[in-house]
Amino acid sequence: MNLWNRLMCYSRRRSPWLFHMNGGSCNGCDIELIASLTPRYDAEQLGVRLEGSPRHADILCITGPVTHNAVNAIKTVYGQVCGPKAVVAIGSCPATTNVFIDSRTLDGPLNRHIPVDVFVPGCPPRPDAIILGVAKAAEILAERAAKKIPIDPVVMPLVGPPCNGACACSTPNAPKSTEEQP
Ligand code: SF4
After folding, report:
1. Edge-to-edge, what's the strand order for the sheet holding 49-50?
2. Does a structural domain hold residue 176?
3. Domain region containing 11
4. In angstroms, what is the span from residue 66 Cα to ligand 1's centroid?
5. Which of the four pLDDT bands, split at 50, 70 and 90, describes residue 8?
6. Lowest mean pLDDT among 55-59, 98-102, 162-166
7. Which one of 11, 97, 113, 152 is separated from 69 by 20 to 30 angstroms, measured CA to CA?
8. 74: CA distance to ligand 1 center in Å?
9. Domain CATH for 89
10. Pocket flag, ligand 1, residue 22 (CB < 6 Å)
């Protein structure tokens, strides 16, 4: 690898630029992503920056369970991010469609349409979990640029206290009880 490529790999790992896209989320994950960039969590201190155009970004961050309306937009935006690129699925929705699993408006999960590199679980995931997921994606990006090899998707561990069962997502795929079934 020549000096220019080594410099590019170093920059990508040290300062990944993100483009955020909402694939039909409830906005919970979007709020946490923005919180990760605020001074309290301060992802920008690590070189992470939110970009307004996918053409300037290295990493595509997608939230939401992927609605029919969002599919074409997601594919278009994925094509607009210059390679090498990485995709981070933020929250349980893009990974499994979560609480919206039976909705007829959905065409998820996300990896049916584009390759996903990092899954950040949680409903919503905490900002520190999102920062860890982005850091992992930056690592994958640099490795991909250096070796040009396929890299398997990574599922990040849950960060923070376990779900207390107070929200609707606590048992999204659990079979219905016999009383509820027709
Ligand atoms: S994972 Fe939870 S918080 Fe995030 S979009 Fe889905 S329902 Fe909303």
Report:
1. 49-50, 17-22, 59-63, 86-90, 118-120, 154-155
2. no
3. 3-170
4. 11
5. confident
6. 162-166
7. 152
8. 17
9. 3.40.50.12280
10. no
